[in-house]
Amino acid sequence: MITFEEAFRIITSNLPVKETERIHFQLSAGRVLAEDIHSDLNMPPFDKAAVDGYACRRADLHQPMQLMEVIAAGSQPKKEILPGSCSKIMTGAMMPKNADCVVMVEHSIIDAEGKVIILDKNTKNNIAYLGEDIREGEKVLAEGSLIKAQHIAVLASAGAINPLVYKKVITTIMSTGDELVEPDHNPVAGKIRNSNGSQLVEQLRTTGAEVIYGGIVPDDAEITRQMISNALKNSDVVILSGGISMGDFDYIPGILKELRFQILFQSLAVQPGKPTVFARSENKFILGLPGNPVSSFNIFELLGKPFLYRLMGHQQKDLNLRLPLAENYSRKGSGRLGFVPALLTNGMVVPIHYHGSAHINALVNADILFSVPLGISELHAGELVDVRFI
């Protein structure tokens, strides 16, 4: 049995990185950049008005000014600003020559002669200057970035319409056990619906991996061996839930050895999630998760996601906080690092009481997991705990 920290090091170290491909930037959300992105122009590309108002010289704010023209966004000024003159300008429009400020419309009036009188003589400049956001050639996104909606806007602004990204990790998910039936079946006595499979498919999709659902693996060693072998032909990673503990029908560790996989760990000092297997054969990987759904969910969030992101060239950065407990918490054992589902309420951690690692409903309202250190069985209200968002 190894520590969580050691398991994390093993599962995220010395990994191959996927090949690359170019795709249209509008299809790149959830993918990982395989190159730095540099802007091909200045942003803004010209001095532009930051407000609707009047572009003028600050030296003329004390006197009525002759209105020269109206400058709409997307058009170019036709006239320069001369002493005693101004131009009405819309937000985002190009500044006319010689203007050094924009007075907001609401800080001005028009007199009987049609001249503009400024009411606010201490106006801000209200100008977005050429290149103040981004300079031409500046790196705007780094290789290894996980592309999100805000990154799409940056790619568009930089003209990077076909960015180089890492290819998706192809992952097959299978659930093991004769007790399982698919969710569209009505389970008879002794059977339960397969919740892990659907849960893991959705968790995987959030990583941007390509997901293949391989179905239910029966408690038969030969069929199990064949299903795993077939899945490996089309996948980089095979993720299994169940079948990895010490029961009479838990064949997986033995089968992995027969398939010439090196088992790098198969027992974690983590609660819940002790029976977890990670194995490798060259550039193929197998992650065996516990069969109970809370354990499966937790271990995938804590170890599976960082592993898959690393394979796709991205180093996941979890937001970990230390926040106070809202109430006392206790557990029966203290021999493993515990991860407990909880609510985050007014900056306080409220533990969700659940009946064990099979109680998947305990996660329905959970915002976070908080950790209970090895050797600790009780925590008191007000104590700071380490928190991970889920």
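^ that was protein a. below is b, sequence first then the tokens
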Amino acid sequence: MGILGHLATAVCVAALAAHVVTTGLAAVRCRRTTPSPRRASVTPSVSIVRPVSGLEDVDKATLHSTFLLAYPDFEVIICAESETDPAVPFVRLLIAKYPAVVARLLVGHAKTTANPKLDNIEKGYQAAQHPWIIFADCNVHLPRDYVQTMLAAWRSDTGLVCAPPIGTSPQTFWAEVECAFLNSYQARWQYAADSVGYGFAQGKSMLWHRSILERAGGISALSSEIAEDAAATKLVRGAGLRVRLAAPPFSQPLGKRTLRQFWQRQTRWAQLRRQSFPFQFAPEILTTCATPIVSASVACLDLDLPVAPVVAAILVVWFGAEAFLARVCGWPLSWRSIAAWSVRDTLIPVIWSIAWLTNRYVWRGTAVTLTRSTGDPCPVRTETSSSAESIGRSPAWR
């Protein structure tokens, strides 16, 4: 075997090893357990702030879950930008239905940052009565032990606890593909990174202690990046603290997803990762099954061995590991999963390339151009798009 063959074999083995190891780490952290509220010796008072914008069918169940938590001392603050938001009447019904839950609906809009989500939740942050604050997106389902699960991940060196969303209830093929991205790909890498002490924030669920955020300048400090979770990661690490992930993670029911919805989300998220963490984003193109397949093919040609059986074996190991992870964690797994994983791995290089070649996307009907001028750490929003989404539709930041 020549030098090229040795190099190709090493790349193949390394890629497969990384895939299997990250799968194992994620499986240990996210494995399915019998649901039961965690017991804690200390149950501090907690404020839960949830932004709403529009109302999909799945949002009714996820918002409802907020009022069913098995925690002794919490308040709920739901934030909307306008009285005409379709979620507002439903939220008022929930508040009336559960008078025992301390809950408020805050309505109003103050554009103070380039991030509409932060603008929406700022009023909730200011109104929160408790030092422990959870920001939870409205499309995340909160299990009864949600607060306990978040608090259980906090340690003395923690600055923030997060949890990546796990896609559930896919009703279309593109929802299945989004599950393929969210679950056995993104969540797998996030939990593997967290297991070796390199956790990073995910904006779907964020547990803060107010003192940490206030020392950094308050909630406006999260606007230093176009994505608040990227800003949170840098803020916490800059303070010498760690971002930790709660486990097991929480579900995000997907329902129906079109190709357009899927494509806009994935390309936007890729652009944001490239903008905030370019050196970590660059190797993402190597994280698909194409890496071991191509390298193994080169090694087989160098050794004059048949390629097809080796490629087949790699695919069995690769997708078998993902099926194992989904099975032990209780994540969606069906006959369509292999097709969804294959489409995902085919699209990752395309999405990765688009992220490097473009600096523009549509966010809540607003055209956003990612810029970073000297002395200005915050990318800016620009012109309003003619294709703005109506208020009854799910906004892009979700």
